[in-house]
Write a structure and sequence with these properties.
By secondary structure, the chain is of the alpha/beta class. The chain is built from 13 helices and 13 strands. α4 runs parallel beside α10. The longest helix has 26 residues.
């Protein structure tokens, strides 16, 4: 028996998540991973690096709770939002028996985390208006433990309709958890569902410091949920999930000054995004600019493959979504700095 044959059947058949770093590319302008153009400056105290870190650093938990408008008992910090997704599946789904529900096209790690844990997947695709098919989801609630929604949705940028979400939450009582991934919510903070946590114990939110906080390299995320859910996740999470340097930098990012810096970054990104969207709409190569609610724009070009190749040749690395359902000719452009946006527009304006 080969080493590969020793692996679990699901792992043998698995195609790993194609992250921006795994896909790679050759270039000098990287606009394919929804990273911020800067990270800010932080200090480190190395005096405690000889000690194991706290599982849930109180200063980080308390500061994030204050920032998100919830109690500390409703917050769990983890290695990025991805670990929060993984923990939910491992905690609530029996391998080989239970299923999750997702709405494609959406963030790929929901499916990957389910597959690696031997958990089934029910896909209820987005409607033509790119909203979740709430009727279709509700029909499947008895077949799933977790429903994953992304708002703003990656890659389309759409926000989940609140009336539909409320209807789903009512239907999901005592049946399933509804997980709303808010990785990009800082770019449209008025659209957060955090205010619903107090009334809907089956609601869970996923957050991160990777996007608006400019700390993708830190790998620090948060799960917001009722204390019972958090308590169950704490049974499953690794003993030391948050390294000491990560906790120190996260606490600084969540300080009063850190939050002010984040909001300045968001304002700059949103302004650049609005300008880029307007200029793209005037370009004859552009069929459609999707919803501008994250730190990226999904754009349908004519044809997308030519634009992607020209950008790549010029050293500008974007993310191609043409293979995803309903996203033919679509390319996602991360909002970088002003010079990077000018470079994108310059290539588009050149003769084809």
């Amino acid at each position: 028996m080969s080493i590969t044959q020793l692996a679990r059947t699901q792992v043998q058949a698995l195609t790993p998540y194609q992250s921006a770093r795994r896909i790679g590319g050759q270039g000098h302008i990287w606009l394919n991973a929804n990273e911020a153009a800067d990270s800010g400056e932080y200090s480190l105290d190395c005096a405690r690096l000889n000690r194991y870190p706290e599982c849930q650093p109180p200063q980080v938990i308390n500061r994030y709770a204050a920032y998100a408008g919830v109690t500390a008992e409703q917050v769990l910090v983890s290695r990025g939002g991805d670990e929060g997704i993984e923990l939910l599946i491992r905690t609530f789904c029996e391998p080989g028996r239970d299923q999750i529900l997702l709405c494609s096209p959406t963030y790929g790690m929901y499916a990957i985390s389910a597959e690696t844990n031997g958990v089934g997947i029910i896909d209820v695709p987005l409607r033509e208006d790119r909203q979740p098919d709430f009727d279709g989801i509700i029909e499947q609630l008895d077949q799933v433990k977790l429903v994953f929604l992304c708002s703003p949705n990656n890659p389309t940028g759409d926000l989940v309709d609140r009336a539909g979400l409320l209807r789903l939450l009512e239907a999901a009582k005592d049946r399933a958890l509804v997980v709303v991934d808010e990785a990009y919510i800082e770019f449209c903070p008025e659209s957060t569902q955090a205010g619903l946590l107090a009334d809907y114990p089956q609601l869970v939110l996923i957050r991160t410091l990777s996007k608006a906080f400019g700390l993708a390299g830190l790998r620090c995320g948060f799960t917001l949920a009722n204390p019972e859910v958090i308590g169950l996740l704490l049974k499953v999470i690794a003993p030391y999930p948050v390294p000491e340097p990560v906790a120190q930098i996260a606490a600084q990012a969540l300080s009063e000054d850190g939050l002010a810096t984040m909001r300045e970054r968001v304002a700059e990104i949103n302004a650049l995004k609005a300008t880029l969207a307007e200029q793209l709409r005037q370009n004859p190569q552009v069929q459609h600019v999707f919803a501008p609610n994250g730190n990226y724009l999904l754009v349908r070009f004519t044809p997308g493959s030519h634009v992607f190749a020209r950008m790549s040749k010029a050293g500008i690395i974007l993310r191609d979504f043409a293979s995803k359902p309903g996203l033919s000719d679509c390319i996602r452009i991360t909002i970088g700095n002003s010079a990077e946006m000018d470079a994108v527009l310059q290539i588009l304006q050149q003769e084809q």
